[in-house]
Design a protein that fits this description.
Blueprint (H helix, E strand, L loop, with lengths): L44 E4 L4 H16 L3 H10 L4 H11 L1 H8 L18 E3 L6 E3 L3 E3 L5 E3 H13 L19 H11 L1 H17 L4 E3 L9 E4 L6 E3 L5 E3 L12 H12 L2 H10 E3 L6 E3 L6 E3 L5 E3 L5 E2 L18 H35 L1 H14 L8 H27 L11 H29 L8 H33 L19 E2 L1 E2 L26 H19 L1
Parallel strand pairs: 1-16, 8-15
Antiparallel strand pairs: 1-7, 2-3, 4-5, 6-7, 8-9, 10-11, 12-13, 13-14
Helix pairs in contact: 1-2, 3-4, 5-6, 6-7, 7-15, 9-10, 10-12, 12-13, 12-14, 13-14
Length: 573
């Protein structure tokens, strides 16, 4: 430990209790492994900026080019076809072989150099598209062997680019699935429409983000202009360098242990009028004349609508206005209407169940917002305590405890929407019997209550005015915060293990995935280096000169990237 400045409110900080010089018996009960410091690992998530976007794309291109000895446009065609998943590409290569790999992606690699030789300057070909003769210098042959006049090729390319098919423009020949060389496309289109050629380049550039399941735009509003790349699992939660934490899979706010589908339904349920409709069903009845909902505000079962119609509250039937306390003149509703009663009871039960989970979710969400304001007061308390002549000089346990409170409060709040759907009938009605559902519900709620109890104790301990206490009392609070932090971390881990193994893991449907629990909190993505490595070995000679990275001006990069940024802003709204 260097000093207090090493212990800020970063989500990357962990607990550093084992190296404290003082001896405290309360620490002996804890598992030593839980308190030992581990060297920080490199971030597995990267932030891609406009400066590093080309370098990120280049990195994958180089891997494929070097592995298969391909030109750049061949490597790009393969990667776009396999959605920039290099591991999947390699798996297909091993399983099916190079020939099948190329055929499926529409890549034609010319083995015989003579077949790819340019047309003789004196030769003339008949274009099969326009049925006109064209000289060698006004016709182009693709690697698949098909040759057409430049005018037909250009029109074909322009149509495909305007249709948004720039990433995979196929040959014009009948039943030919070969992908056209991007250098030829760029060359022919730029002669007639330079702006369209830039649009073509932009589509190729944006394919790294749009077609790549491991890269997504940050959903911040206003948009920060950055993308996030994950290395391992797409079902994770990340933090952009702009500070926004979000679920990488669905791009909504971080919501584990809820699955993306659960959180989508819960958000909709909380924001739309579905529960208002439920309340109306439970507390009102429709007027038999105008069908508007009427709420009963007295003890008499004869109700009058604002339209003037009177009806019986018990059965909903239209009546006259003459009545006594015991009966309505000319009306009898003694018959039991089972369906209507069942419908009302069901709506009532669903409403009360929703209110149970929603009230607890909102309570912990509100607590999180209030506790977030503790940061300033905690810093003030630490400053005052450091000025006192106390034997304890290190107050990192305070900030670490506060970070643990934030993380666990968030887990606890999202555990209630998870429980609402996990033990309801919307998703898993046929997956569990009523008895199994009850057993699993009790198991989960026991863990939830233990976590809730310890989180409240930690919150109360951190709100103590420890800067005013004596040396011994400060030491007691310190031990309490440390022990509670370790306990809460263990309980969070056990809750996630229970969800992954005993609850979701035992189901046949694999549509629900949750982000894994991370003791140190959501990982903050690190900046991807924008240093461009142009040494591509023997394949470098194949690279189009106008797409060499060292020759790409800042002006052109801005022209390519600004539309991408606008598109990302559109998607984030």
């Amino acid at each position: 430990m260097e000093g207090e400045e090493d212990y800020g409110f970063s989500e990357e900080e962990d607990y550093y209790y084992a190296d404290d010089g003082d001896s405290h018996d309360g620490l002996a009960d804890n598992d030593d492994s839980a308190l030992q410091w581990a060297p920080p690992k490199g971030s597995t998530t990267k932030v891609i900026t406009k400066e590093s976007l080309l370098a990120a794309q280049r990195e994958d291109l180089r891997r494929v080019m070097e592995l298969l000895s391909l030109k750049e446009h061949h490597a790009r065609t393969l990667l776009i076809h396999y959605r920039w998943d290099v591991e999947k590409l390699l798996a297909v290569l091993v399983e099916k072989g190079k020939s099948c790999l190329f055929t499926e992606a529409g890549v034609t690699v010319v083995e015989n150099v003579d077949d790819d030789a340019p047309l003789s300057s004196s030769s003339t070909i008949t274009c099969d598209i326009c049925i006109e003769d064209a000289s060698a210098d006004t016709a182009t042959r693709m690697e698949c062997g098909h040759c057409f006049c430049n005018n037909c090729w250009t029109e074909h390319f322009i149509i495909k680019i305007n249709e948004g098919q720039s990433r995979r423009i196929q040959c014009m020949a009948h039943r030919c699935s070969a992908i056209c060389d991007e250098a030829i496309v760029r060359n022919l289109v730029s002669r007639r429409h330079p702006n369209l050629a830039e649009k073509f380049d932009r589509f190729l550039l944006e394919s790294y983000i749009e077609d790549n399941k491991m890269v997504k735009w940050c959903p911040s509003i206003p948009h920060c202009g950055k993308a996030i790349r994950v290395e391992e699992d797409e079902f994770c939660e990340v933090e952009c360098s702009c500070g926004l934490q979000f679920c990488f899979s669905c791009l909504s706010e971080a919501h584990s242990p809820c699955s993306c589908l659960m959180w989508e339904r819960w958000s909709k349920k909380c924001h739309d009028e579905s529960e208002t409709v439920n309340w109306i069903t439970v507390h009102t009845k429709p007027c038999p004349k105008c069908y508007k909902p009427v709420e009963k505000n007295g003890g008499c079962n004869l109700v009058s609508c604002i339209c003037g119609q009177s009806f019986c509250w018990v059965c909903g039937g239209a009546t006259g206005r003459d009545h006594t306390w015991s009966r309505i003149a000319g009306h009898s509703c003694g018959r039991y209407k089972e369906d209507r009663e069942k419908q009302t009871e069901r709506a009532k039960r669903d409403l009360y169940r929703y209110m149970h989970y929603h009230n607890r979710f909102k309570a912990h969400t509100d607590s999180f917002k209030l506790e977030s304001k503790l940061k300033e007061s905690i810093l003030d308390k630490v400053s005052v305590a450091e000025e006192r002549e106390l034997r304890l000089k290190d107050f990192s346990w305070v900030t670490n405890g506060l970070n643990r409170l934030f993380r666990s409060r968030r887990v606890l709040s999202y555990s209630y929407p998870f429980a609402f759907y996990m033990f309801g009938e919307e998703f898993f009605k046929d997956e569990m019997t009523d008895e199994e559902r009850e057993i699993k519900k009790n198991l989960f709620e026991d863990q939830q209550q233990q976590l809730e109890s310890n989180v409240e104790k930690l919150s109360m301990s951190l709100e103590e005015p420890f800067q005013q206490f004596s040396q011994d009392k400060v030491m007691d609070i310190r031990m309490r915060v440390i022990n509670l932090s370790v306990t809460i971390d263990t309980l969070c881990q056990k809750m996630y293990e229970c969800i992954e193994s005993d609850l979701l893991g035992s189901l046949h449907l694999g549509t629900h995935h949750i982000a894994p629990y991370k003791s140190k909190g959501i990982e903050r993505a690190s900046e991807l280096s924008s240093c461009w490595n142009t040494k591509l070995g023997s394949t470098d000679e194949y690279l189009p000169s106008d797409f060499q990275l060292q020759g790409l001006s800042v002006w052109r990069m801005e022209r390519l990237f600004i539309p991408l940024k606008r598109k990302a802003l559109f998607h984030s709204k």
